[in-house]
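Field reference: sequence -> structure
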Amino acid sequence: DDKDPDSEIGPSSLFRECVTVLMQEAEHSLLTGDPFLPESSSDSGNLTIT
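Structure field:
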């Protein structure tokens, strides 16, 4: 079996990449106080979700 799990392109690796990006954006949002969702910042300046 010469498959390398790290280099395999599939739903699981894409999912992990998405999660990593989301976690980085969330961490950036928490550290800087800036919302990482452009839609929420244009609707209102606070973090309330309606």
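Note: DSSP finds two helices and no strands in the chain.
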